[in-house]
Amino acid sequence: MPANFPQPAAHDAAPYDALLLYSFGGPNRPEDVVPFLRNVTAGKGIPDERLEEVGEHYYGFGGKSPINEQNLALKAALEAELAARGIELSVVWGNRNWAPYTNDAVDELEQLGAERAVALVTSAYASYSGCRQYREDLAVTLDKRGQLGADGSTGVQFDKVRPYFNHPGFVQANVDAVVEAYADLGTKGGSGTDAKLVFVTHSIPDTMEAASRISHATYSEQHLDLARVVAAQVAERVGHDVPWDLAYCSRSGPPSQPWLEPDVNDHLEALAADGLRNVVLSPIGFVSDHMEVAYDLDTEALATANDLGMVAVRAGTVGTREPFVRGLVDLVLERAALARGGDVTEATVGSLPALRSVCAPGCCLRRDGEPTGVPALCSTDLYS
Ligand SMILES: CC1=C(CCC(=O)O)c2cc3nc(cc4[nH]c(cc5[nH]c(cc1n2)c(C)c5CCC(=O)O)c(CCC(=O)O)c4C)C(CCC(=O)O)=C3C
Ligand SMILES: [Fe+2]
Question: Which residues bind Fe-coproporphyrin III (predicted)?
């Protein structure tokens, strides 16, 4: 290679010409609630009572989830960070369960003339719900458009950023949020030195947890590793020990089906029974204050804590915090460097390695050993 061969600049996003911000979606008005819930639960055996109950959570907030506005804010923050770093990359937003749908996003990518896009999902952890389900929806959408070739080639080509729960940017933003929550606890008459830090994430069925073991640490192990690091960094910043636990929220499915426990409300009761009076809740399982956080934590869990006579504060989610957004752009550049075949250092914090951006065969199935019947992009097992 001649010495003057043009090297891609460190800030170069080549080979990508677009970034797909890929999320869950949520209703914008009361009429959207039932169709949205039908989209989410199609064929998943969620009992009707649970659906009615979840519908009420949305109606209680005027039929509108905060998630779409939060994704628009993240899109704007990503655009600003890309522009500030001189990176030319169009950002397109799409959702699995509500407009703009995956198909709308692919339309937009085509209108932009994009040939190769990097996908960033709004879930930091690897499991069926947080990784493979997004990759399947993308494949199914392209298939319906007649754009999924027998060899896995697609019209617009997609790569995915690795699960980023252990990326320094995500960790830093969570640490900052928890430190702020400890300060809040003080202003509410609570005592940080006597408090328990309770990390919270979305529960999943035990079967999905078991299936998440293929090729990497399980969903709960990923959370435990991050929790350990966040608590240690918070302890350094607040200057005292920070004891912590991991609890779960938002379980659904039939009661006979085991999901990850303890539920955050049950856990608060257990802590209160042990005489604990101060709690900081940190929703590390979620990237923004969407309905799971607004209802399951701010409405339900904080009421439980209040009833138990506890002083409880909910830490913020990473949202559009600067270290998080900067970290996401770093991850996009990291993925671009990988795609170019360069030597790449994948930054991580904690004891787990960086998870793969091209998923392994059988990675993150809904249930162990189950044939998917559905192809998934960004993996080496397109048709397994
Ligand atoms: C791991 C995980 C995440 C985090 C990763 C990610 O972000 O993707 C997540 C996020 C979200 N979950 C959300 C909403 C819902 N999730 C449901 C159902 C389910 N979630 C599951 C798991 C997860 N879910 C599972 C295993 C089910 C059972 C059905 C199935 O196996 O798929 C249901 C159906 C009713 C109910 O059962 O609650 C709803 C309405 C919203 C939107 C909130 C808003 O509108 O602001 C968001 C961001
Ligand atoms: Fe969910």
Answer: 65, 134
